[in-house]
Amino acid sequence: MRKGVTTLLCLLLVSVMLSGCVERWTGMDEEQESRTQNVYRATDSASTPTEGANDTLFSIRWNDANDDLYWGYVVLKLEVGDTVYDCTITDGGDCFISQDSDDDTIWETNEILTIMENDVNIVGGSGGLINLYISYRGTQIAGSDSVYVQ
Q1: Which residues, at least 6 apart from 67, have a Cβ–Cβ distance to it below 8 Å?
Q2: pTM of structure
C-alpha cells in the first residue's frame, strides 16, 4: 500500500512540474495572447508645422500586420523634450489620431493613421524630433521609435 501511494505522489509531482513546460512549449502563454507581431512605420507628413496648435504631424503605416488591434487596448504617446502628449481617436487628447477606415473601434491591418495636434502646439514652427510610444495591451508594438517632423 505504501509503495502505491509513493508512486502516485511521484506521478502527481512529475505531472505538475511538466504542466508549465507543456504550456510554454505549446504556446499557450497568456501573456503571448496579448502581444501582436505587427510592425509599424512613422513618416513625416507633407505639411510644414507652424506655431499654431492644429498641425498635421506625421502618418503611421503598418510594415507588417496580421492583427487588427482594438483601440480600447492601444496607447499612443508622443514625447518632445520632457513633455509627453497623449493621442486619442476621440477629441479628448493632446493629439488626434485620424483613421482612413470605416471602423472606428479597430486599427486595421491595411489602415493609415494621421497624427495631428489637437489645440496643443507640440513641435512649433521649426519642427523637431518626436519620440513615439505605442503599445497594445501593455506591450510595446515594434516599429519606429521616433520621427522627425519638419
Answers
A1: 36, 37, 38, 109
A2: 0.77
Cell of 31: 501573456
Q: Enter the C-alpha cell of residue 49.
A: 508645422
Residue 69 grid cell: 488591434
Which residue reads 496580421 in cell numbers? 66
Residue 138 has phi, psi (to 5 degrees) of 85, 0
What is the tens place of the pLDDT at every residue in 22-58? 444 444 445 445 689 999 999 999 899 999 999 999 9
Residue 64: how many other CB atoms lie within 10 Å: 12
In 5-136, beta strands by DSSP E? 39-44, 56-64, 69-70, 74-80, 83-88, 95-99, 106-107, 113-117, 128-136
